[in-house]
Design a protein that fits this description.
Length: 520
């Protein structure tokens, strides 16, 4: 069923992209025809990656595992049932008179036990027995005895109180929340990797376009030079120089194509698209790269949001809570054991008079006697114990104290890491924006210079070498511009992941833990 549902999702994505699906020929040969490639939006790519990524699928099971641990810890307070049946017999020879003493007994017991969150340990049990012998002094034979007992033990120092006895349960509950936060943090990191890979592909595709454009410019110049050579206007060296440029730019086109292919395959790997999936048959174009006018927060605002929203930071803070719970428990374990013990019993007795002078009474009569409280008993007492040095409990308490301090340091260290990540991401964004502006100015100047030099070439005032040089300047300026824009978008991806809101920014949701789903 799960594999079938995966294929349904994949086929759904295919249908969503079907209006833009490339013909089979273009799927195999994509040197040209970039505009015919199907477009995969960023949000679709991230959503697909979150659903298909196997590492994330494995991480999605952690909340279910933690939920089982919570159930196991909670089960300590469940009611338990116990029962026992026994039989006993004996025979002892006598000297005078020569009659052997014989006796037999059958006994059964059933009970309900429960540990309460205050530390109270209670057991309610029903005990019944049938005994018979051949002794003349026996009052009844057979004899039926039935008793209902309530045994209670309440710790007064060690293991006293709800906070102590629910320590493991509260830690398990926190672990369950940590597992969910860990899964969310993993999903955010996978989304960041996909977003970064997406812009790697976008940059590679645009670079590929510019390399093709550069080669076409050199090809046009070569064809023009050939015409001029036939007309006797230029020497053959001008044609040879243009041919050399075409060959060199063909190599750059192939390198750019290689980068498109590798970037596309890296993205497919992040999306979990295997070779057998229909989606693997095509390469995909990205959406137009978002421009440099995207809003972004300043350091103070970004850091404030990160301290509130980062799931890994929230998980570390929960770990401090866990250490505090364990510290309180271990502190309690250093106390002496002082337990209040009590037992209350009601019983009934019946049987046939050994002399045969009374009416016969059976097991039911013993139950009636117990219900009427014909007999009762009670016990109350206090037990005390304490290791003379108590080194084990003290050592565990000291260890818990150190582990809590360690957890606090971990939180502080992660807060420092978060601040560094945000500052570095903002530096990448801001410097990228500056590079975009500089590259834009350089591109405009390079375009103008090339245009002017082409006019000079028409007038016979320039040559092939200069034209090729100015063409390289234009293409390099455009590639630097798109590289800077990609860096800005990769920086924003890192920034919003560091803030803990990249999924929200992309409008993408992840599956949360569902008990019913994981009970399947």
């Amino acid at each position: 069923m799960k594999r079938f549902s995966v294929w349904i999702k994949v086929l759904g994505l295919i249908l969503a992209l079907s209006p833009l699906t490339a013909p089979p020929s273009l799927a195999k040969d994509y040197i040209e025809g970039l505009d015919e490639w199907p477009v995969m939006p960023l949000r679709t790519a991230v959503q697909l990656g979150l659903e298909q990524n196997f590492d994330l699928r494995a991480g999605a099971l952690n909340p279910a595992i933690a939920d089982r641990d919570h159930t196991a810890a909670e089960a300590r307070f469940d009611v338990s049932v116990d029962a026992a049946v026994s039989a006993q017999g004996n025979r002892q020879p006598e000297r005078v008179p020569l009659i052997d003493q014989e006796g037999r007994s059958l006994a059964a017991e059933a009970g309900l036990s429960k540990v309460f969150r205050t530390g109270l340990d209670g057991r309610l049990s029903l005990q019944t027995a049938r005994s018979s012998d051949n002794l003349a002094q026996s009052g009844r034979s057979p004899e039926y005895a039935t008793a209902l007992l309530l045994d209670l033990t309440q710790p007064l120092l060690r293991d006293f109180g709800s906070s102590v006895n629910t320590a493991d349960l509260r830690i398990a509950d926190t672990r369950r929340r940590q597992a969910t936060l860990g899964y969310l943090d993993q999903a955010q990191r996978v989304a960041e990797a996909i977003e970064s890979g997406y812009f790697d592909l976008a940059q590679a595709i645009e670079t590929y376009r510019y390399r093709i454009e550069s080669r076409d410019l050199a090809q046009e110049l070569l064809e023009g030079n050939r015409e001029k050579l036939e007309a006797g206007i230029i020497p053959v060296s001008e044609v040879q120089e243009a041919e050399t440029a075409v060959a060199a730019r063909d190599e750059l086109v192939l390198l750019a194509r290689q980068e498109v292919e590798t970037a596309g395959n890296r993205l497919k790997g992040l999306l979990g698209i295997k070779q057998e999936y229909p989606l693997s048959r095509n390469f995909y174009r990205t959406e137009p790269m978002p421009g440099p006018d995207q809003p972004f927060p300043q350091v103070e605002q970004a850091l404030e949001q990160a301290l509130d929203d980062r799931p890994d930071l929230a998980s570390r803070r929960l770990e401090v809570e866990n250490r505090q719970i364990r510290l309180e428990f271990d502190r309690n374990q250093t106390l002496p054991r002082l337990d209040l013990q009590a037992t209350l019993a009601v019983n009934g007795l019946s049987g046939e008079d050994g002399a045969g002078t009374s009416s016969r009474r059976d097991y039911i009569d013993s139950l009636d006697g117990m219900a009427g409280a014909d007999g009762y008993g009670w016990f109350a007492g206090v037990g005390f114990s304490y290791p003379l040095e108590n080194r084990a409990a003290k050592a565990l308490h000291d260890r818990s104290r150190l582990e809590k301090r360690q957890a606090v340091y971990d939180v502080k260290g992660l807060e420092t890491t978060v601040e560094t990540e945000i500052i570095n991401a903002l530096i990448r964004v801001k410097r990228g924006l500056e590079r975009v502006r500089v590259a834009g100015r350089f591109e405009a100047l390079a375009d103008l210079t090339l245009k002017q030099e082409m006019e000079r070439l028409v007038e016979g005032l320039s040559d092939t070498f200069r034209i090729l040089d100015f063409q390289d300047d234009v293409i390099d300026a455009r590639i630097r511009n798109i590289t800077a824009q990609a860096d800005v978008n990769r920086g924003l991806a890192s920034l919003h992941r560091a803030m803990g809101n990249n999924l929200e920014r992309l409008g993408v949701t992840v599956k949360t833990f569902d008990k019913e789903q994981f009970h399947e």
